[in-house]
Design goal:
This protein is an alpha+beta fold. Among the domains are: 203-363, Roll (SH3 type barrels), CATH 2.30.30; 379-543, SH3 type barrels (Roll), CATH 2.30.30. It is built from 10 helices and 32 strands. The relative contact order is 0.09.
């Protein structure tokens, strides 16, 4: 399931709360507007019925969960908010519109944490978490699903300033980390269970990465032939079942998805986008998520779903757990090849090797490629001898890598860059296209100021990801926005000074840790630091006045 932005509407605990995706905002506003003047009392009061009830002074959609004949009350769940309330039957009204629109909130929980003591969250932890997520207050978060269980997705949730809510709770002594567990894909009771466990010596094909580079989906070589036969049979059987393409997809339902070459894919619906009439589908035989139009989805009737997905997740040995999405372009070149790998089991991890190369090594090389780029240009950054200095915090990445500079260096750069005229830059126009490769230095305009940029990745033919080396900030630019670096600036050292906080020297530059200390400081803040030495191209520092 893809990353999305949301607000938090209701909290039961840090591992069970409801979020409202921003993409549903317009739908929610329309529903709210359309149901504010109900005229008909509810005539059918039974569990599962969708109706409307007052909540916080507004009429809201709700689902009846319990009915008490003794008290004349019902327990309702507000499907667009996530909260539950007990209401008199007489207060319920009939829902005239939007009956078929699914609830707009999602139940999630923070991944990788558990109560500080025992299995129950303390009142203090609950209150702290509610304050952090700003219930119904409008604070937006970026949510990245990790695993799924019967209660919904376990997620990584980061606020607008880059603070990971899981890490913040742990730092505040309101939670503790739990060990990472890789779980098998959820199964339906009617699916035939087959023993497809990966064992030493198996031959497999690499399909796709999961959410991180070290979690990949593979299919056994022998299973591929079984799969092709099973899909052919399913395709023939589906021809005898009428399909209503106007039906709203069911979350968690299994569907067939046609492809360009008349082959079908089997998938499980992970998310529904009502307004756009789209669904996010996990292709269970490919290990891949896709956004597909409702009209392309064919529900698979009961009895035709003969086996669970053939794609199996394995954990690669000696491969960093970096987010896979940012390396999708590079990974696709490996996954699109029909290469057979032999499995070598090492504890709970695997090593995959073909006749020509080791897949673990290949993927690790991709993960560390940008670090190698930084190693190459590391000597171009400004440097300070050991001692105490007044500096300006330029960026707040993490304790393993952040950037500072001195006022003297900043003023020197402003003076030098001000000599560049628009006319001279126009002569270097890229209207015909400027080729940029990872490791190249180019010139870009950021916030009205020209900055040197180190190309780290080419996202596609038109977009490049860069590090603005004079201010220590990463950004993306269109290829048409970049300019060749003038010769007068090519030998000038970068204005920024890369640093690692004392105590984090053992972390790689890309490993994020303890953002909270920087969120308290804020960028462009003047600090007093002590330079203690160097590790590679990073300066080891400690804060003197914090």
């Amino acid at each position: 399931m893809a990353t999305y932005r949301c607000t938090v509407s209701y909290v039961e605990s840090p591992d069970s709360f409801y979020v409202s995706p921003l993409e549903n905002q317009e739908v929610w506003e329309k529903i709210l507007m359309d149901i504010q003047n109900p005229s008909t009392s509810l005539d059918l009061v039974e569990v599962g019925n969708i109706c409307i009830s007052e909540q916080g002074g507004l009429w809201s959609r709700c689902k009846i969960e319990q009915v008490s004949s003794n008290t004349g009350e019902v327990r309702v769940f507000f499907i667009d908010h996530g909260s539950r309330e007990t209401k008199p039957v007489s207060s319920l009204m009939k829902l005239e519109t939007h009956r078929n629109t699914p609830g707009l909130v999602r139940r999630v929980g923070l991944a990788g944490i558990q109560p500080l003591q025992g299995e129950v969250w303390s009142d203090e932890s609950l209150e702290t978490f509610k304050e952090l997520v700003d219930i119904d207050g409008g604070t937006t978060f970026q949510v990245t699903p990790q695993t799924q269980d019967k209660d919904g997705y376990k997620v990584i949730m980061v606020d607008e300033e880059g603070m990971n809510m899981r890490d913040v709770l742990v730092e505040l002594d309101q939670a503790r980390f739990e060990l990472e567990v890789i779980e098998s894909e959820p199964r339906m009771d009617e699916i035939v269970s087959m023993d497809r466990s990966i064992v030493d010596g198996d031959q497999v094909i690499f399909l796709n990465c999961g959410d991180s580079l070290n979690k990949i989906y593979v299919i056994k070589k022998l299973d591929r032939d079984h799969l092709n036969g099973e899909l052919t049979t399913l395709n023939l059987k589906l021809e005898f079942f009428p399909v209503n393409l106007d039906n709203i997809p069911v979350l968690g339902g299994y569907v067939a998805c046609p492809s360009d070459n008349d082959r079908i894919f089997r998938g499980r619906i992970e998310n529904i986008f009502t307004e756009e009439m789209l669904a996010e589908v996990f292709l269970i035989d490919e290990g891949l998520n896709k956004i597909i139009s409702w009209k392309e989805l064919i529900p698979i009737p009961d009895g035709l779903f003969s086996s669970e997905g053939y794609a199996q997740m394995v954990l690669l040995k000696d491969v960093p757990s970096r987010e896979a999405l940012q390396f999708s372009r590079e990974i696709s070149t490996l996954a699109n090849q029909e290469i057979i790998y032999t499995v070598h089991i090492s504890g709970d991890k695997v090593i995959l090797s073909s006749q020509d190369f080791n897949l673990n090594t290949k993927i690790s090389a991709i993960a560390y490629f940008e670090s190698k780029i930084m190693d190459t240009v590391g000597n171009n950054f400004s440097d300070l001898d050991p001692g105490i200095y007044e500096v300006v915090l330029l960026s707040n990445a993490s304790t393993s890598l952040f950037y500072v500079s001195t006022k003297e260096l900043i003023n020197r750069w402003i003076e030098k860059i001000s000599r560049l005229t628009e006319e001279s830059l126009k002569t270097e126009s890229t209207s015909k296209g400027l080729k940029a490769e990872p490791g190249d230095l180019v010139l870009v305009s950021s916030g009205g100021t020209w900055c040197r940029a180190l190309v780290k990745k080419c996202q596609d033919l038109n977009i490049i990801q860069v590090l603005l080396v004079d201010i220590g900030v990463e950004d993306e630019f269109s290829i048409t926005e970049i300019r060749p670096l003038p010769a007068s600036l090519q030998q000038e050292r970068f204005t920024s000074i890369p640093c690692v906080l004392q105590g984090s020297e053992n972390l790689e530059p890309w490993e994020t840790e303890n953002l909270d200390v920087f969120n308290r400081i804020g960028f462009n803040t003047e600090l007093r630091v002590e330079i203690l030495g160097k590790i590679g191209w990073r300066n080891i520092v400690r804060f003197v006045n914090l």
